[in-house]
Amino acid sequence: MTQTAKPADRPLSPHVFIYRWPLASLLSITHRITGIGLTIGTLLLTSWIVSATHGGDSYAAFTAFIGSPFGYFLLLGFSLALFYHLCNGIRHLFWDAGMNFEIAQTNSGNWLVLSGTVVLTAAAWLLALM
Amino acid sequence: MFAHYNLRTPLGRARGLGSATEGLHHWWAQRLTALALIPLTVWFVAAVVGLAGSDYEQFVNWLSTPYNASAMILFLGVSFHHAQLGMQVVIEDYVGNHGWRIGTIVVVKFICCGLGALGIVSTLIVTFGV
Asked: How far apart are the first and last CA of chain A?
């Protein structure tokens, strides 16, 4: 005979979805998400080179697709993910070397990675479209 | 009563459940490929920015130099190696069911190897003349 336990009338520990995420946690999961995105994005990279093996028409078809609004959308996502994963990856290598573990360094690193991503993406697009 | 009957000794059952000691190699390979991808990514972004708006002939000429072809092959090979190592860690962390976990890892690794081979062979075809 089991009795249904009355819900305890005391505060519960915050669940991961209720808890306000520190920026560092958000950036940590973003590293994995961008990694998965970049892995899928390699389809784009491979099709670019494969299209060239089929001759000029096929290469032109690929560049036309990339030049379309949807192609630009994919390229923007790919470049943002690439620069984010690059910047945050460099930070991970410093951590692996045992450096920058202080909270102040982590906090400044968060903003360094985010601004680095935006600046590098903007610079690449400006240079490419000029 | 015989449900717990087992010919294997308690020690025999406990053995082999610990570390497979392969973790260090995986960890090291992921960091080494990450380090190599820093200059390769810078090269790749600079190349794509430089190639923006170029036609088929310009692309083939660009990929026909030994430096660009070598860098492209390295970028592809190291990227796919890094991708399959990273994807394996993500799958191991989030896919709970043992069968699904092994199955997804195998499929992702096979796809990465296949796309890597396709990209590298396509680069060689473009380099040596379509």
From this structure: 76
